[in-house]
Amino acid sequence: MESKGNPFDRKPKSLKDLQGTTRKDREEKNVPIIEKPTETPKPAPWVCATGKRVFRQLIDKLIEKGIFTELDLEFFNAGCHEYGTYIDMQKDLKKEGRTFMAKGTTSTGEIYNKGLSANPKINIANKAFAQAMSNFKLFGLNPTDRSKMHIPNPTPKEKKKDGIIGFINQRKNK
């Protein structure tokens, strides 16, 4: 029997279609078709407030482009939560500073200055950002990963929604 590697490492067909790398000879058989959401999903209750704002800013755009499906919801929630944590930590660091004077105590209980130390929120922010980018790269939310995706051009109905530019394009096409 031929080994096809770890099934969790394989790209879904929809992503291959967007990236333009689909090959008929390598298509999987009996792959389930996952529907796009019929209405805009809401962020999970456990997502931080800043993450919920990020979620609301991005979700409609991802659905419109055909990148987001119902199964992506929890993964996207996690990415938004991590990115929200990153933003919150950056705001805190701006207020508190990136360093602080560390204190220590002697064996007699005297307090003394140990010197400057890095604010621990720097590590929290760095880890949250790395995790968010790891989650978001599958949705094409950074320039490098977006350039790998071949998102189809809008249909004529979608062009009509573009206002004056859509109107001009319609006139040219007639």
Q: How does the SSE layout of this entry go?
A:
Layout: H1 13-19, H2 49-65, H3 73-96, E1 99-105, E2 111-118, H4 121-136, H5 143-147, H6 156-160, H7 164-173
Antiparallel strand pairs: 1-2
Helix pairs in contact: 2-3, 3-4
- Characterize the biggest β-sheet: 2 strands, antiparallel
Q: What number of structural domains do the residues give?
A: 1
As a percent range, the share of strand residues is 5-15%
Strand numbers in spatial order across the main sheet: 1-2
Main structural class: mainly alpha
Helix-strand topology string = HHHEEHHHH
Question: How many strand units?
Answer: 2
Shape: elongated
Q: What would the average pLDDT be, to the nearest integer?
A: 79
Distance between the termini: 56 Å
Helix content range: 40-55%
Give start-end ranges of low-pLDDT stretches.
none
Work out the helix count. Answer: 7
Structure description:
With 174 residues, the protein is mostly helical. The protein has one domain. The chain is built from seven helices and two strands; from the N terminus they run αααββαααα. The chain has a two-stranded antiparallel sheet with strand order 1-2. Helix 2 (49-65) crosses helix 3 (73-96) and helix 3 (73-96) runs antiparallel to helix 4 (121-136). 16% of the residues are buried.
Supply database-style keywords.
48% helix, 7 helices, two-stranded antiparallel sheet, 174 residues, elongated, mainly alpha, single chain
